[in-house]
Amino acid sequence: MSKITPTSKNSAPTAKPNQNADALDASTSPITPAKIDWQIDDTGNRVPVSGEFDDVYFSHADGLAESRHVFLSHNQLPERLAKLKPMQCFTVAELGLGTGLNLLATWQLWRQLRERHPHLATARLHFITTEKFPIPLADLTQILNLWGRRAPELTDLIEQLLAAYPPLIAGSHRLNFFDDNLTVDMWFGDAANSFAKLTSDTALKTNPHVDAWYLDGFAPSCNSTLWAENIFAHMQRLSRPNTTAATYSCAGVVKRALKAHGFQIKKVKGFGRKREMLTAIMTAVDNEETLKNNGASNGTSSNASNNTNSNDNANKDTASLEFLNNKVLDNKVFNDTDITGDKPIHTAIIGAGVSGLSTAWALANRGIKVTLLDKSAPLAGASGNPRALLAPKMTPIHHVDEHLHTIGYLFSSRLYRKINDKARQQKTAPVLEPTGALDLLMKANIGTEQIADYPDDMATTLPLEQAQNTSGLQSQDLSDNLYLPQSGLVNPQALKNIILTHPLIHFQQLDAHDISETGSQVCITGSSHHTKSLSITADNVVICAAFESHQLDSRIFDCRKIRGQLSWFTPSEAQLAHLPKIPLKYGGYCTLFTEAADHIGSIHALNHQPQFLLGASFIRNDTDTELRNEEHQVSREKLVSAIPEMASIIPADTRQWQGRAGIRTQTPDYHPIVGPLVDSKRLWVISAMGAKGYALAPICAEALADMMLGSFAPLSAAMLARLSPSRKRLQTPLTP
User: Fold this and answer.
1) How far is CA 225 from CA 57, 169, 210, 537, in A?
2) How would you label 255-292 residue by residue, b for 16+ Cβ within 10 Å and e otherwise?
3) Which of 104, 282, 341, 549 is most buried, with most CB under 10 Å away?
């Protein structure tokens, strides 16, 4: 049987799954990596064993065959996935990631079906999995490389999975595999906590739900927590009629729990030595109001409503179960993935900075046609600096699963590396240059003792000599430092160029003046360089116009405006030898970069000439974007004050420096604004990224796209509430 590393017996909460958002903010312990032992299976192959539970991760007979038999075949995935319609999304939820073998088997099936069925070109598969004790990357690589030799058809998928595998940090990790229309959400931590964070309520009538469950924990006799009542209560909350489930286990506690939470079960032939296994289906409900409540509520549906069906309903349920177990599908039964009229086909986005570009990318990769609008040009605003430093704002690790900066940084890092693959294919400049970064911890809210709890591939402290060699600093006190190995420099122009090559994204210059919403569409009226009056209609409109968003719709909070000017100069060879070797954070940041004849506003940097960038200034309530030499001086003084040895290296005369000023937007609680506008079904906003747009905008865009399309977001219900445009903190205007 395929067994996945479970949650510890005492870690699951007893709260009901309809707990409010504030109740989801409980502190989180650092992730404990799985301990891997090894055994020899029936065919003489080495197989991994859980050191915590002394049990195998999958069958000694054939783990891959077991995954296909138990979870794919008995959730009817070959037939159900083949019947998806364009732009439909099918969601699988798994109790335990383990070695990832179930994911790989599902991914391979999905790829095969898409090759055989052209109508699946825009359909999507969403795979949500939980893991309390995730396997370290080195061990997982060893395990999956063994499977690559046994099952060569998985080799390419294994390589992609390992390349995207996240650091072992609590919380949600979204992995996108664009070429296969596959989204994988890995939730590291207690399974009940993770499922509690999934919201089943969106701004659309079509609410997210799970279509198929993989129940693949260790046996209940080994680990009762993963089969506890609260797990099944979340299953019921996140399912709807005709949701299926499969498990290798036939234990009485499993059968009783499934029945008590709205599922009808049946025993079928098991795999290998297992005589029997269970399949299940969520019972059908005829009452429309009950069905609506099941789909829209964040709480647990009452057991009574699911267990008091009439004899006619019971007969229908039995018939549905027979269809399931006999591998006969009928659209009248399995209509849970039918597409609805609420799915948008065309979305207009106002504002082509990093928020607008990220939103366009997220929607286009879901099959949505996007018209990207800006009053001048893409990246003309604050997002258009020559480089952006991708580095996290750290938090104590027990807060990390609800820390947007960490979640966003890790997702953006994966995303930009994935887009780098496309840049290589197109032979264009990379989007992310993986330089690493060193935080001198001068304005950090975390100390070296708290950094120690983070995995080294996320953040670590370098010994003094290594910190000096890595940074190039010699006299600076570097005994306290934070090294960020996954950090790097984002090239905004390269990112823009890749995004605008997407066939579903079209840029159009338009200065929007008015937005009007009807029941069926939204109309944007404005003017362009060539036309005095122009109108564009779309199913949805997303406003990403930074500090000008409030001018377009007064329901959007009028945020704080902060002018920031970056500065850069061309160092001499002598200066170059003594400048920092990697990006440094010190309250501001500085870095070397080489501009390969890219345009920086109206300025051209010399081809392949190194530049040294520093800044940025921070001036509230100033929306002027003209360059100011005094702000060059301010940025220089900040750097020299933080790193005195730079005083003799950085020129004192800044009059020949280049620079760029932009206006950042900030809320009173420092969280972005992401979600639907109040009293609107077609108007959305993503704004107020502050100085962290390249770290925060991509994950916020993913969440917004999921809300628009009725899918599960990669952020908790509590986090979505903190980002809401109608949250309480945004009800009081800022004082001047």
Assistant:
1) 17, 21, 21, 51
2) bebbbebbbbbeebebbbebeebbbbbbbbbeeeeeee
3) 282
Q: What are phi and psi of 171, to 5 degrees?
A: 115, -165
The radius of gyration computed from the CA coordinates of the chain, to the nearest angstrom, equals 27
Q: What are phi and psi of 418, to 5 degrees?
A: -65, -45
Q: How many angstroms separate the CA atoms of 28 and 21, rounded?
A: 15
Each residue's pLDDT tens digit, 190-203: 999 999 999 876 55
Contacts of 676 (CB under 8 A, 6+ apart): 203, 683, 684, 707, 725
Tokens, residue 299 = 């709480």
In this structure, are strands 388-390 and 488-490 parallel, antiparallel, or unpaired?
antiparallel
Are 471 and 465 within 8 A, CB to CB? Answer: no
**Which residue has tokens 């009783």?**
256
pLDDT in tens, 341-357: 457 899 999 999 999 99
Cβ-based neighbours of 73, under 8 Å, separated by 6 or more: 327
Query: Tell me, what amino acid is at 679?
Result: D
Q: How far is CA 405 from CA 175, 399, 408, 666, 696, in A?
A: 17, 11, 5, 15, 7
**DSSP-derived secondary structure for 219-235:** -TTT-GGGGSHHHHHHH
Could you tell me what percentage of the chain is helix, strand and coil, using 3-state DSSP and rounding each to the nearest 5? 35, 25, 45
The two tokens of residue 153 are 């058809």
Residue 386 backbone dihedrals phi, psi, to 5 degrees: -65, -35
Q: How do 124-131 and 89-95 pair as beta strands?
A: parallel
Dihedral of CA atoms 505, 510, 515, 517 in degrees, nearest 10, equals -30
Digit-coded pLDDT (tens) for 550-585: 999 999 999 999 999 999 999 999 999 999 999 999
Helix (H) / strand (E) containing 458: none
Contact 482, 451 (CB under 8 A): yes
**Residue 684 to residue 673: CA distance in whole angstroms:** 10
Phi, psi torsion values for 266, nearest 5 degrees: -155, 140
Residue 130 CA to its chain's centroid (Å): 15
Is 306 in contact with 283 (CB distance < 8 Å)? yes
Residue 293 has phi, psi (to 5 degrees) of -65, -35
Considering only CA atoms, which of 479, 490, 507, 476 is closest in space to residue 437? 490
Helix (H, G, I), strand (E, B) or coil at 346: strand
DSSP designation for 217: B
List, in order of start, the domains of the chain with CATH numbers: 30-325 (3.40.50.150), 344-433+490-559+668-736 (3.50.50.60), 434-489+561-666 (3.30.9.10)
Torsion of CA 75, 81, 84, 86, to 10 degrees: 140
Reply yes or no on whether the pLDDT at 30 is more than 70: yes
- CA dist., res. 715 & res. 405, Å (int): 12
How is residue 25 written in tokens? 């903010």
Q: Tokens standing for 419? A: 């887009």
The label of the residue with tokens 């799970």 reads 210
- Verify cis geometry, omega within 30 degrees of 0, for the bond prior to 377: no
Q: Which helix (H) or strand (E) holds 631?
A: helix 629-642
The gap between the terminal CA atoms of the chain, to the nearest Å, is 64
Q: Judge contact between 726 and 26, C-beta under 8 A.
A: no
Where is pLDDT greater, at 227 or 590? 590
Return the pLDDT at 299.
Answer: 36
